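Researcher: Let's do a round of design. I'm pasting the C-alpha cells now; please hold your answer until I've finished.
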C-alpha cells in the first residue's frame, strides 16, 4: 500500500465524518484497484455519505471480487442512496437482478431515490434491456411510476413517450415526479412545459410543499436549471414562449438568479413594442396588488419595454402600476440605480406628471435617509442590528456557539465591527469605493493562485511529491513577476511565500474557504454563476477558468463588472443569512449559559427592534422568564429579516415561514448544518462587501502630495 493510501486509510478512522467523506472521495477519484479494500471497509461506516461514495467507488472500479460486498449492501443498507449505488455496481457487472432492483426504485419513496435510480439506469453502457422493463410501468395505476417510465423511455429514444410524460405533468398526483424526470430528457419541449407550468399555476399551488421537500416552485426552478435552458433559448421560439419567460422574470427570477442574464439577452431579441404588449397581457392576467411588483421586476431588467407596456395597459391597471413605481422610488430614495434610471425614463414620458417632485428627492443617491426611518428596523437592506462580533474567527467566544470559518487570507482588512452611535459620530470612516473590473480580475488571479497552492499542499501532505513542490515554486515566481501579491494582503502573502509543504492542516482548512470568494468574484465579472445556496463551492472547476502560470493580461483586459445593484442584492441576501445564523448561535449560547443574556447592549438592541415589529417580550418574560424571552426574541428578529427579503424576492420561500437551509429551519439545524450556514454566509457576505466597498484608501497619499518614488 502506498503512502497516500495509508494516509487515506488513517483518515477513514477519523471521528470527523467530514474527514472520512473527504477521504472516500479521494479514493473514488484515484480509481485504483488497490483502494478497493478500503472502500469495502467504508461500506460499514455510520455516515450515509461515506457509505454512498464507497459503493459508488466500487461500482466505478467494476471488480468481480467486490460482488459479495455490493450484494450485501444492496440488500441490507438502510439508506436508499447507498443501495442504489451498490445496485449500479452490480448492474455494470452484468447482474440482471440488480437492473430489476434499480427499476423497482423508480416506484419507491423518497423522490431523491427515484432520481438517483434514474440517473444510475441511464449511466449503464447497455441500455437496450431497459425498454422492456420500463414499458409495463406505463400501464400501472401508479401515476408517479408512469411519469418516470415515460420520461426515461423518451430519454432512451422512444418519441411517443413524450405525450405520456406530458400527461403525468398535468396531474397533481404525479406532477413532482414528472418535473423530477424532465432534466434527463434533454428536450426543449419538456423545458417549455416546465416553464408553462411555472407561469400558469396559481401561487398557492406553487408554494405548496410535501414533507421535507422544497416547494413546487423551487422544484420546478431546479428542474429548469438542470434541464439546460440553453436548449430552449437556442431553439426556435414557439407561441407563448415570450410571455412565459416574462412571467418567470416577473414572478420567480429569485428562484433562478443564474439564468436571469441569459433570459434577458434572449428576450431583448424581440422588438420592444411586441414585448411590451406581452408584458401588458401578463399584467392583465394577474391579481390586483401583484401587477406593480411584476412590472418593476421586468422593467428594471428591460427598461426599453416600460413605456410600450404602459401604453398597452388598460387605464385602471396602468394607474396601479404607476402608483407602485412611484412608491418604490419614494422608498428607495435613489439607492437603487436601476430603479432610479427607470424613474427618470418614465418622468420624461407622457406619464411624467406622476413623478413630479421625485427628481430631486427620490431619484438622487445623495438624499439622506431620515433618522427615524433608519432606526425603525423596517428596512433589511440598510443597517440592521447585530450581535457584536469581537473576533472575525468566531461569533463570540462567550456564546458557546459554532465558529465561523477563519478569516480569508486574501482579506487583510477585516470588515469593521459595529460602533455605538457616539463612536460613529467621532470616528472617521476610511473612504471606500467599489473596485474596478481589472482590480477584481487581479484579485481573482491571486485567490486562484492561493487555491491552486492548496491543491498542491494537500498532495504534499499525503506524501512526497517533487512535482508539487516545483509547481508551488513556479506559482510563487509567477505571482511575483505579474505583481499579483497585493490582493493577498500581508497575512496571505506570508502564507503564500512559505516553503512548499509548510502549510499546517489549519492553514489548508482556512484557505479552502476562499473558493466561496472566487466563485462570487467570477460571477461579478460575468464569468460564472452564483454559488449553490446550500453547499460549499468546488474549487477545481473554477481554477480551470483561470490563466494561472500564463500571461494574465488578456484576462485582465476582458474583465467586465456586473452592476452594483446585482451585487448589492446578493450582499443583502447573505447579510440576512449571516445575521440569522449568528442570532440562532447566540440563542443557543444563552440556552446553554443564561448569564450571557445579562447586560448585553447589542442583545438589547435586537430585542428592542423585535418588539417594534410585534414581539411581545413582556408576555414571554412573564410566562417563561427573561432567558426564554431573549432566545425567542433573537429568533423572532431573524424571521422578520428573512420575511422582509422574501417579500422583496431576494430569498426563496413564503414570507413568514422563516429561513430554510438544507430542508431545515434554523432552530431545527444540528450544529454541523448551522456551522455550514455560518461559514457560507460569512465568506460570501465578506466577498460581496469587498465588491461593493473595496478596502478603503487609507494607504493612499494625502491630497496635493506625490506618491513616493
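Researcher: That's everything. Go ahead.
Model: Designed sequence:
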Amino acid at each position: 500500500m502506498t503512502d497516500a493510501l495509508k494516509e487515506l486509510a488513517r483518515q477513514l478512522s477519523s471521528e470527523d465524518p467530514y474527514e472520512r467523506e473527504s477521504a472516500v472521495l479521494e479514493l473514488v477519484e484515484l480509481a485504483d484497484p488497490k483502494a478497493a479494500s478500503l472502500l469495502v471497509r467504508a461500506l460499514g461506516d455510520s455516515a450515509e455519505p461515506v457509505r454512498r461514495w464507497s459503493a459508488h467507488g466500487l461500482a466505478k472500479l467494476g471488480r468481480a471480487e467486490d460482488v459479495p460486498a455490493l450484494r450485501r449492501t444492496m440488500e441490507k443498507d438502510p439508506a436508499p442512496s447507498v443501495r442504489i449505488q451498490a445496485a449500479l455496481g452490480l448492474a455494470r457487472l452484468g447482474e440482471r437482478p440488480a437492473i430489476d432492483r434499480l427499476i423497482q426504485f423508480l416506484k419507491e419513496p423518497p423522490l431523491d431515490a427515484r432520481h438517483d435510480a434514474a440517473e444510475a439506469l441511464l449511466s449503464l453502457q447497455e441500455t437496450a434491456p431497459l425498454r422492456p422493463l420500463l414499458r409495463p410501468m406505463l400501464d400501472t395505476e401508479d401515476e408517479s411510476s408512469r411519469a418516470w417510465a415515460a420520461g426515461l423511455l423518451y430519454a432512451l429514444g422512444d418519441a411517443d413517450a413524450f405525450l405520456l410524460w406530458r400527461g403525468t405533468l398535468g396531474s397533481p398526483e404525479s406532477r413532482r415526479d414528472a418535473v423530477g424526470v424532465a432534466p434527463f430528457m434533454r428536450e426543449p419541449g419538456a423545458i417549455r412545459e416546465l416553464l408553462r407550468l411555472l407561469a400558469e399555476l396559481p401561487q398557492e399551488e406553487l408554494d405548496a410543499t410535501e414533507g421535507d421537500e422544497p416547494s413546487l416552485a423551487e422544484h420546478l426552478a431546479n428542474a429548469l436549471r438542470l434541464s439546460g435552458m440553453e436548449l430552449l433559448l437556442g431553439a426556435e421560439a414557439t407561441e407563448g414562449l415570450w410571455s412565459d419567460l416574462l412571467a418567470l422574470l416577473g414572478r420567480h427570477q429569485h428562484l433562478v438568479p443564474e439564468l436571469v442574464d441569459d433570459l434577458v439577452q434572449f428576450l431583448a431579441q424581440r422588438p420592444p413594442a411586441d414585448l411590451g404588449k406581452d408584458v401588458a397581457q401578463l399584467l392583465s392576467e394577474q391579481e390586483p396588488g401583484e401587477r406593480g411588483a411584476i412590472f418593476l421586476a421586468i422593467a428594471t431588467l428591460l427598461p426599453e419595454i416600460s413605456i410600450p407596456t404602459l401604453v398597452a395597459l388598460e387605464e385602471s391597471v396602468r394607474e396601479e402600476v404607476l402608483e407602485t413605481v412611484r412608491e418604490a422610488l419614494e422608498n428607495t430614495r435613489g439607492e437603487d440605480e436601476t430603479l432610479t434610471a427607470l424613474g427618470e425614463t418614465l418622468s420624461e414620458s407622457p406619464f411624467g406628471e406622476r413623478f413630479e417632485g421625485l427628481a430631486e428627492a427620490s431619484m438622487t443617491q445623495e438624499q439622506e435617509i431620515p433618522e427615524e426611518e433608519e432606526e425603525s428596523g423596517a428596512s433589511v437592506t440598510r443597517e440592521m442590528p447585530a450581535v457584536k462580533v469581537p473576533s472575525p474567527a468566531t461569533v463570540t467566544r462567550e456564546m458557546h456557539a459554532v465558529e465561523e470559518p477563519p478569516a480569508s487570507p486574501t482579506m487583510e482588512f477585516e470588515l469593521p465591527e459595529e460602533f455605538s452611535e457616539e463612536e460613529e459620530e467621532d470616528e472617521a470612516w476610511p473612504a471606500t469605493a467599489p473596485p474596478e473590473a481589472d482590480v477584481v480580475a487581479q484579485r481573482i488571479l491571486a485567490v486562484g493562485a492561493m487555491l491552486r497552492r492548496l491543491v498542491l499542499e494537500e498532495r504534499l501532505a499525503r506524501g512526497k511529491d517533487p512535482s508539487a513542490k516545483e509547481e508551488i515554486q513556479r506559482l510563487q515566481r509567477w505571482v511575483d513577476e505579474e505583481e499579483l501579491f497585493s490582493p493577498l494582503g500581508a497575512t496571505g502573502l506570508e502564507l503564500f511565500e512559505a516553503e512548499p509543504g509548510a502549510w499546517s492542516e489549519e492553514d489548508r482548512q482556512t484557505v479552502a474557504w476562499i473558493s466561496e470568494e472566487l466563485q462570487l468574484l467570477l460571477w461579478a465579472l460575468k464569468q460564472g454563476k452564483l454559488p449553490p445556496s446550500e453547499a460549499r463551492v468546488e474549487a477545481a472547476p473554477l481554477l480551470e477558468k483561470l490563466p494561472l502560470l500564463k500571461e494574465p493580461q488578456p484576462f485582465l483586459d476582458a474583465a467586465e463588472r456586473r452592476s452594483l445593484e446585482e451585487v448589492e442584492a446578493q450582499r443583502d441576501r447573505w447579510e440576512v443569512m449571516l445575521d440569522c445564523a449568528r442570532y440562532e448561535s447566540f440563542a443557543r449560547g444563552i440556552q446553554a449559559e443564561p448569564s450571557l443574556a445579562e447586560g448585553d447592549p447589542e442583545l438589547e438592541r435586537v430585542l428592542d427592534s423585535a418588539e417594534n415589529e410585534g414581539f411581545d417580550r413582556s408576555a414571554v418574560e412573564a410566562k417563561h422568564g427573561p432567558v426564554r424571552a431573549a432566545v425567542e426574541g433573537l429568533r423572532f428578529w431573524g424571521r422578520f429579516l428573512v420575511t422582509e427579503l422574501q417579500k422583496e424576492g431576494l430569498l426563496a420561500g413564503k414570507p413568514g415561514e422563516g429561513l430554510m437551509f438544507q430542508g431545515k429551519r434554523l432552530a431545527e439545524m444540528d450544529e454541523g448544518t448551522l456551522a455550514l450556514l455560518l461559514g457560507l454566509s460569512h465568506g460570501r457576505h465578506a466577498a460581496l462587501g469587498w465588491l461593493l466597498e473595496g478596502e478603503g484608501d487609507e494607504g493612499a497619499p494625502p491630497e496635493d502630495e506625490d506618491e513616493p518614488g
